[in-house]
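Why do we care about 3D structure at all? Because function follows from shape, and shape follows, mostly, from sequence. That is the central idea of this module. The next example makes it concrete: a single protein chain, its amino acid sequence, and then its structure expressed as tokens.
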Amino acid sequence: MRAIISPISPDGTSAPASRTFAIAGHLMTAPKAVPGLHLVATPIGNLGDITLRALETLAGVDIIACEDTRITRRLTERYSIAGTLKQYHEHNAEQARPKILEKLAQGASIALVSDAGTPLISDPGFKLVREVSAAGFSVIALPGPSSVLAALAVAALPTNRFFFEGFLPSRQMARRARLTELSRIDATLVMFDSGNRVQDTLADLADIMGTRDAAICRELTKMHEEVRRAKVSELAAVAGELETRGEFVLVIGPPEADAQAMTEQDLDTMLRASLRHDSVKDAVAHALELSGRPRREIYARALELAKEMKEGDGED
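And the structure:
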């Protein structure tokens, strides 16, 4: 069943107040959403990017679970959706999940939205989806806007393989260590950043991946959208000119085909760090992904280091 279009009358009585939404001066009646958890992608900036299916679902569900009711209300008010908004975010998730599961057990339909984009992409929701599916309730995905895919599309960089990192660590030492690990991945890298850290991040990127092609994407789909494309080192050199207000997505091209494999010293450092909290098997798998060195060599070295570390722990 699809939405039914009916003109809005002057007295506003042409359609029921619930389960409706408005587009271009017409009131549309949405079907009641099927029971289950609906993961609804919402605009990342331009509210016109919402899909018709998303509007039908938001108007048709019993509850809209959202990070910030004020932000989601801008969307529902834009399309005259009289939905019931309930907060679900990282700070109240432990208390909110049981209530959502209880509602689903009663046959409710619930939409999960993030402040912008596709739910669960650097947003809360993974544990909720896991528990909902484990309890046997339906989980329905409604694809739509995503800043990750939007940035990849406009960056003019290879998209056959990409790795999404999300937000980097805020402290420089941890950030540089993570960027060093990421530099070994043979794929285009996508990461989020905030305006108050983007200049520092670019400086670190220039030290570690300075020769790669990259793109800085700011305020995607919004009025002041800006995309800059150049070598990482060139973008870092003009970072002081950046308008730092808004949301940033950084896209870094893959390493050159002839990039050197990780040095033995760097491999040892990585293995030691992994072996402090992982098994030999897991440490080898992690190093194999990032180092570019043969599995047999990594495994033999991991065994040696694990033995040394064990003997060292046993010394008085």
